[in-house]
Write a structure and sequence with these properties.
It contains eleven helices and no strands. It has helices at about 5-15, 20-30, 30-45, 45-55, 55-65, 65-85, 100-115, 120-130, 140-170, 170-175, 175-200. The radius of gyration is 18 Å and the shape is globular.
């Protein structure tokens, strides 16, 4: 596995996006355990895009305006829904110290949905991974699986670091109502901005 692949992957993963925003939100409102669940869900959400790239479905998204638009607008609607939920005091960003099995599962599922409903991720895998697979590679599928697994492992690790850092300052924020109000507005604005960016995205 080349150093260029690892460095390029790290730059892509560290760049703030929907998954990072969601993981930070989970950490600040529900703590470290919730942030790990959110990071795990976002990482699992990469799997369908990886499979799509391997099966050629990503190429369909790249060439079919209708398929791309359908998935894109589903993603936009979901991000706007997340923005509205963030604004509500009892919504997605409600402060809750308890993280039981049910809430953990919900955090994971939401993380999966956030990444699945992003068509740019499939196209990213279609364009990104082949660059690091030699033309004369004997087992290209196995190689793609290896690179994808490394990308996912790095994603989970980076998101967990983001989440644990946010969780470490959680107590200073959740005890201040005004700070929580502005935090909700900031996350709502972030989700809305990402939704707008996705709406303007082209294949």
């Amino acid at each position: 596995m080349s150093l260029s692949f690892l460095l390029t992957s790290l730059i892509v993963i560290v760049s703030p996006g929907t998954g990072v925003l969601y993981t930070l939100a989970a950490a600040l409102t529900r703590g470290a355990r919730a942030s790990i669940a959110a990071a795990f869900g976002c990482t699992l959400g990469i799997v369908p895009h990886m499979l799509a790239a391997m099966l050629g479905l990503a190429a369909v998204l790249h060439t079919s305006a209708l398929a791309f638009a359908a998935l894109k607008w589903l993603g936009v609607i979901y991000l706007l829904y997340m923005a509205l939920q963030a604004l509500r005091e009892r919504g997605a960003l409600r402060v809750d110290a308890r993280v039981d099995a049910r809430s953990t599962l919900k955090l994971i599922v939401t993380g999966i949905l956030i990444n699945i409903l992003n068509p740019k991720l499939s196209i990213f895998f279609l364009a990104f991974l082949p660059q690091f697979i030699a033309v004369d590679e004997d087992h290209p599928v196995a190689r793609m699986l290896e690179l994808s697994a490394a990308f996912m492992a790095m994603t989970f690790a980076v998101f967990v670091v983001y989440g644990l850092f946010a969780a470490s300052v959680r107590d200073r924020i959740v005890t201040r109502p005004k700070a929580m109000t502005w935090l909700r507005r900031a996350f709502a604005g972030g989700f809305a901005a990402l939704g707008a960016r996705l709406a303007l995205a082209e294949r």
